[in-house]
Amino acid sequence: MLRGCGRGAAAVLRGAAGSRGASGQERGPEPGRPLEPSLLRFLVCPLSKRPLRYEESTNELINEELGIAYPIIDGIPNMIPEAARTTRKRPPAEGSEQP
Amino acid sequence: MAPTCKRRVSGKALANGSVGVIYQVFENVAEKYDVMNDSMSLGIHRVWKDILVHKMNPSPGTLLVDVAGGTGDIAFRFLNYVRSVRERQLQQKLRHHQNLSWQEISKSYQEEKSNPLGDSQVVVCDINKEMLKAGKKRAQHLGYSEGLSWVLGNAEELPFDDDKFDVYTIAFGIRNVTRIDLALQEAYRVLKPGGRFLCLEFSHVSNPLLSRLYDLYSFQVIPVLGEVIAGDWKSYQYLVESIRRFPPQEELKAMIEDAGFLKVDYQNLNSGIVAIHSGFKL
Q1: Which parts of this chain are annotated as the region Disordered (chain A) (predicted)?
Q2: Residue A48 falls within a domain, yes or no?
Q3: Which ranges of chain A would DSSP assign to H, the alpha helix?
Q4: Is residue A26 part of a domain?
């Protein structure tokens, strides 16, 4: 099921002008990938409305500037600011570990 | 019936209507949501939602954000609708082309198979994790996978970029938002220019006789149903009271206009028990 979505989403992402920068990165549809890839096209930080980076290792969406991370649980991103800030607060310096 | 862990919500807390309390109400009702909707409205809520999607009349390729759409009722109807429109489009195409080679005909069928939704997409956004989980489970059960995503988010602070969606819907959700004006502003922000706002919500019945019968039903029958079916009188009493507190048609129309929407209008269903408000970002 997810593989099928990945294929369709990959096509969509290729078609889209890809101007969103941070969030539209490499697409390898892996089986069991928790987050719906096409969602990244729409999601931004609810506070700053800036693009987010998907961190695969921790399965989170990270706002580098504000130094906060939104968790993804069961494939559903939790974009409630209160929940993210208190449980996953990281200093902005840590966000410099770019792939 | 599966054992449920429900927290009893005090009547006083409910009356204050704080966000946390409202959250608990929906945590309680999430599991029984669909069953209760059918019982309370005698199944008519399905017709209301059908009418909403028909009014939307989405064409394939439409991007919809369904806010407070927890269990997916609107999202599934949207997907069904665009799928059937797309099927009809492809059939029309075949019919209008005379002398097609067998290759061209089979290519057309392949097109339909590989892209049955025509790139339509719906993002379901809800503040309540339980409602989303229930919706996701339902989607799997009913076989919906393509073009459907789930996001935990707050209608007053949407995690979406500006000018993204063709249509924004909020069905039976806006009355539970604390700051309706903020939700409307967010709706305006995330819609593309030319995008449409659609709100399906309980409203006010002006006919005095009908209004009395409706009140009787709401206050005498619904909480009882809530207790019998979901074991939760208070949550359903809250629901009934929240309906009474909600602004009537004209007032909601004014609020929608305040958010910047144009050509705002409403359509009463069942004499105003329910109303569909519509506006455009122009």
Answers
A1: 13-36
A2: yes
A3: 2-15, 81-87
A4: no
Q: Is A17 a domain residue?
A: no
Contact state of A5 with B146 under an 8 Å Cβ cutoff: yes
Output the domain CATH number for residue A49.
2.20.25.10
Condensed to tens digits (0 to 9), the pLDDT of residues B253-280 reads 999 999 999 999 999 999 999 999 999 9
With CB atoms and an 8 Å threshold, state whether A42 touches B164. yes
pTM here? Answer: 0.79
Q: Per-residue confidence at B207, pLDDT binned at 50, 70, 90?
A: very high
Residue A21, pLDDT > 50, answer no
Q: H or E stretch including B187?
A: helix B180-190
Residue A29, pLDDT > 50, answer no
For chain A, the distance separating the N- and C-terminal CA atoms, rounded to the nearest angstrom, is 29
Asked whether residue B232 carries a pLDDT value surpassing 90, the answer given is no
Chain A: residue nearest B136 by CA? A76
Binding site members of B: 71, 126, 154-155
Q: What is the DSSP letter of B174?
A: G
Selected for mutation to probe chain B from A79, A82, A85, A87 (highest B CB count within 10 Å) is: A79
Report the pLDDT value the prediction gives residue A1, as an integer from 0 to 100. Answer: 46
Q: Which of A85, A87, A33 is nearest to A56 (CA)?
A: A33
The answer to whether residue A49 is domain-embedded is yes
Find the domain containing A41 and state its range.
31-89
pLDDT of residue B23 exceeding 60: yes
Domain count, chain A: 1
